[in-house]
Amino acid sequence: MTARTKIVEALATKLKLINGSGAYSTNLYGGNVSTRLKFWDEVQDFPYVCAVPGAEHREYLPGGFKWGIINIALKLYVYGEDSHKRLEDLISDVEHVVYSNENLEYETGKFTTEVLINSIITDEGLLTPYGVGEINLSVRYEV
Q1: Which of 60, 59, 56, 36 is nearest to 48 (CA)?
Q2: 77: containing domain
């Protein structure tokens, strides 16, 4: 398994901890997180989050040191009368997970060095009663 796959799976594991208690206002019921892309019309149980790896690039530094920077798209899906509020709550919960796991352990003794949010996009209520959002991350790790 590649580092990029392990990083996405480690992030998905952290997202599964969103349970509606404590700092979280949304409940993902432990299983409503996937590491494969699903579109909103394929989802049966809401809320739902997909963590999908995108492009990766490398930075080569002196001494043979290399950084890997992976783009990860988090697709967020909600359903209900107040879908806009539900989506904003889920975005807030996911942001909390991201900020709490900047140094994410993806393999024993291997950690990411930063996890940054590049953008947050929503459907702006166009799909009501569904709500669809996307959070784009940049994850840096040592190759």
Answers
A1: 36
A2: 3-142
